[in-house]
Design goal:
- The chain is an all-alpha fold.
- It has one domain.
- The protein contains 3 helices and no strands.
- It is elongated and about 55 Å long.
- 1% of the residues are buried.
């Protein structure tokens, strides 16, 4: 088994199924916090998919894109948690 075989036939289907399940959770999420967590998980799965494409196509510049997406995802979660804390203090 080579790395390309392992990535293509095992990891990519797992990532695609997880994105579909996370999107269903995003649509059904009863609260805003559940939806934000689903979006954070989708960002994490997209980072995995982009890293997969980077390894398969031998383009290391895609890894820079994953770092930028991870930073944006982290900052958005921090901003949302700050918003929720301020909203709970006002109530």
């Amino acid at each position: 088994m080579t790395l390309n075989f392992y990535l293509t036939y095992i990891l990519l289907p797992i990532l695609i199924i997880s994105v579909i399940l996370i999107f269903i959770r995003f649509l059904k999420g009863p609260s805003i916090a559940d939806r934000v967590i689903a979006i954070d998980l989708m960002v994490t799965c997209s980072i995995g998919i982009i890293a997969f494409v980077s390894i398969i196509s031998h383009q290391p510049t895609f890894l820079d894109i994953t770092m930028i997406i991870a930073l944006i995802g982290f900052l958005s979660i921090v901003a949302f948690s700050y918003y929720l804390e301020k909203r709970n203090k006002n109530d």
